[in-house]
Write a structure and sequence with these properties.
The protein has two helices and eleven strands. The strands form three sheets. It has a six-stranded mixed β-sheet. The protein has a three-stranded antiparallel β-sheet with strand order 2-1-9, with no helix packed on it.
Length: 142
C-alpha cells in the first residue's frame, strides 16, 4: 500500500528514523531469510514477500557502514527505491506521521536526511531514500 505524504517512524539500531511513505509498500513480520553470498555487509540475504524475492538490508548497518548486529530485527519495511523493491530490516515500526518535514536544524549533521520530524522525545531524522539509492542498490546487488 503505497502512501502519499508523511513518514513511517521506525526503530533501527537503537535509534528512531523516519522513512517517506511515498516509497513504502508495506510493513511485514520477517520470515525465512535465505542467506546469499554478498559483498555488502548490510545485506542479510533475500526474503520472499508475496512470492517475490527481494534483498533484505539491515537499515542500521546501511546507514552506519558497519556489520549488522547478530540479533535479527523482527520487522521489515518493503520500500521502492529507483523502481526496485527492497526490504529494510528494522527493530520496530512505530507510527505514521502525516506532518511535513521540518528543516534540519543549523549545526546538525544528519547525512541522508531530507529533514526532521518532531516526536515525543525530540527530533527524528527523515531519510531521503533517493539520496541513499546508490548505497542501497550497491548493497542490494546480490
Amino acid at each position: 500500500m503505497k502512501g502519499p505524504g508523511g513518514f513511517l517512524l521506525v526503530q533501527s539500531g537503537g535509534r528512531r528514523i523516519g522513512l517517506p511513505l511515498a516509497q513504502i509498500w508495506e510493513v511485514i513480520q520477517l520470515g525465512d531469510i535465505r542467506p546469499v553470498p554478498v559483498v555488502g555487509r548490510a545485506v542479510r540475504g533475500v526474503i520472499a514477500v508475496h512470492g517475490r524475492m527481494m534483498p533484505l538490508i539491515n537499515l542500521s548497518a546501511l546507514l552506519n557502514s558497519d556489520q549488522p548486529s547478530l540479533t535479527l530485527g523482527s520487522m521489515g519495511v518493503v520500500a521502492s527505491v529507483d523502481g526496485r523493491r527492497v526490504c529494510l530490516e528494522v527493530d520496530d515500526a512505530e507510527i505514521v506521521v502525516r506532518d511535513s518535514a521540518l528543516p534540519v536544524p543549523p549545526g546538525e549533521t544528519l547525512p541522508w536526511a531530507i529533514g526532521v520530524a518532531r516526536y515525543a522525545d525530540g527530533l527524528v531524522p527523515l531519510l531521503d531514500l533517493a539520496a541513499l539509492s546508490t548505497r542501497l542498490m550497491e548493497a542490494a546487488s546480490i
